[in-house]
Structures are given as structure tokens and as C-alpha cells.
Specification:
The chain has 213 residues and is of the alpha/beta class. It is 28% helix and 20% strand. It has a 9-stranded mixed sheet, sandwiched between helices. Helix 3 runs parallel beside helix 4.
Length: 213
């Protein structure tokens, strides 16, 4: 597992990159590393696994089980509608001292249209002891609030200039190194990221670094 200084219940994180780049693998490693920390996963693509976790498909069962055991819960919904996602976020917000991992966030929010329950988690979850780890294959569709409030950013390789241009405010010019050389506008001589590598930045510690899963 990549060594990062993460304080559960007090910090948020973002994991971004194109499909198949390694986001879910990294998120699974993070889940496994959060020992003795209550975690609830919104597993849109049913890609999470954890021998200590309970896998649930019904939203009401998620929080019934969680309130009883407060361990690792992986919610793999049969119903992936927006109302279910909003209810999931609302139920998380009603609790405290929990890490929420939300996969495929871009399916429900965009830069211009962020649903209130998710926005509440991002903007007001920290005082309640809620950490949110948001995962998306379309950075440009993430809300500014999600990135602004995230201390930790993991960026895997991308294939769209619009995504890099959006990320540049948070990652600096090194964001262009997430693209193949022929698509870049800056850092043309920098090497391309290796497969399953990512650029990591702790926004409170200045310059970032390259890691590999």
C-alpha cells in the first residue's frame, strides 16, 4: 500500500483517472488499510472486496447492519438510481466517525449540478467526523467543492485535455503529465506515467510525487 498520512474522520480524498487505470485497486488497498475504522463503501461497479466486510445490496440493510457492528460495509446496489445515492449520502451524514468511499461519483454529480446530500458530506461532514473518499473517471465532472475540500488527491492517467485543464488548479503544471505526450500543452519532455502509476499530492504539503500500485 502506498504510504500516505491520512487521518480518518478528519480528512477527505479524491481518486481520479481513466477507466481501467487502477483507481479501484488503490481504493481497495485503502479500504484494507483502514483497520478498526468504520467504513461504508458505495460500490457502483461491484468491484470492492474485503474479507472483513459485509456485502449488502439493499440500502436499508446497509445502515441497520452498520449501526449494529460499525465495521466495514460494502454496499453493492441493485438499484443505482440517483434517489438511492442521495439517500445513501443522507444516511451517512446522519452518523459520525465513519469513512465513506464513493465510487463512480460522476454518475450522480457534475461540476454544475451537485446534489445536496453529497454536498453536505463534502462541506459539513468533517465536524461530524465523516471522511469522504470520492472516486471518478471524469475529473472535470467533479464539483469544485469536492476538490477544494480534499486534502489528498490521487490522479491516474487520463486521456482528455479538458480533465487536465480542470485539474491544473489543484495539481499545477504536473497535471499535464497524466496525458500521453502527444496530447500535452505543457511538460512535453516529462516522461509518461507508467501503467498503474499515479500522481499524488497532499494539498497541505506543497509538491506532489509519483506512486505505483
Amino acid at each position: 500500500m502506498f504510504d500516505w498520512d491520512f487521518t480518518a474522520f478528519n480528512e477527505d480524498a479524491i481518486i481520479i483517472g481513466m477507466k481501467g487505470g487502477g483507481k479501484t485497486y488503490l481504493a481497495n488497498e485503502i479500504l484494507h488499510s483502514l483497520k478498526n475504522v468504520p467504513v461504508i463503501v458505495f460500490d457502483f461497479n461491484w468491484g470492492f472486496h474485503d474479507s472483513r466486510a459485509v456485502v449488502v445490496h439493499n440500502l436499508q440493510e446497509v445502515f441497520k447492519i452498520y449501526d449494529e457492528m460499525k465495521g466495514h460495509i460494502i454496499f453493492q446496489p441493485y438499484d443505482k438510481s440517483k434517489p438511492v445515492f442521495e439517500s445513501f449520502c443522507s444516511e451517512i451524514f446522519a452518523r459520525s466517525n465513519v469513512v465513506a468511499i464513493i465510487d463512480e461519483t460522476h454518475q450522480y454529480v457534475s461540476k454544475m449540478a451537485i446534489c445536496k446530500p453529497y454536498n453536505d458530506l463534502i462541506l459539513s461532514g468533517r465536524p461530524r467526523g465523516i471522511s469522504v473518499i470520492s472516486i471518478s473517471s471524469r475529473p472535470a465532472n467533479l464539483s469544485n467543492n469536492a476538490l477544494t475540500n480534499a486534502r489528498h488527491i490521487f490522479a491516474f492517467r487520463l486521456n482528455l485535455q479538458s480533465d487536465v485543464e480542470f485539474l491544473q488548479s489543484w495539481l499545477g503544471d504536473q497535471a499535464w503529465e497524466l496525458l500521453p505526450k502527444e496530447q500535452r500543452k505543457k511538460n512535453l519532455d516529462a516522461p509518461e506515467l507508467e501503467q498503474f502509476s499515479f500522481y499524488y499530492r497532499d494539498t497541505q504539503k506543497g509538491a506532489g510525487m509519483v506512486g505505483k500500485i
